[in-house]
Amino acid sequence: MWFIRVNMTDLTSRVEPLPDAYKHLGGRGMTSTIVAKEVPPLCHPLGPNNKLVFAPGIVTGTPAPTSARVSAGAKSPLTGGIKETNGGSSWAADLADMQVRALVIEGQAKKNGKLWGLHLAWDAAASQPKVEFFDANEYAGKDLFEVFPKIYAKYGDTISISGCGVAGEYGYGNAGIVYNDPAKRPTRYSGRGGLGSVMGSKGLKFIVLNREGTPGVPVMDEALFDQGRKKMIDALRTHDITKPKGALNTYGTAVLINIMNEAGGLPTRNFSSGRFEGAAKIAGEAIFEGNKQRLGKELYNHACSPGCIIQCSNTWHNPDGTEAASCVEYESDWALGANCGIDNLDDIATMVKLCNAYGLDTIETGATIGVIMEAGVIPFGDSQGAINLVHEMDKGTPLGRILGGGTAFAGKAYGVTRVPAVKGQGMPAYEPRAVKGIGITYATSTMGADHTAGYTIAPEILGVSGKQDPLTPEGKAALSRGFQAATAFIDTSGHCLFIAFAILDIASGMEGMVEECNGVLGTKWTTADIGRVGAEVLKTERAFNEAAGLGKETDRIPEFMRTEPLPPHNQVFDVLDEALDTVYSEL
Amino acid sequence: MRLRVKLFAFLTRYRDNLSSGMPFEVDLPEDATVADLLRALQVPDEEVKMTFVNGLAQSEDWPLKDGDEVGIFPPIAGG
Ligand code: SF4
Question: Whole-model pTM above 0.90?
Answer without folding.
Answer: yes
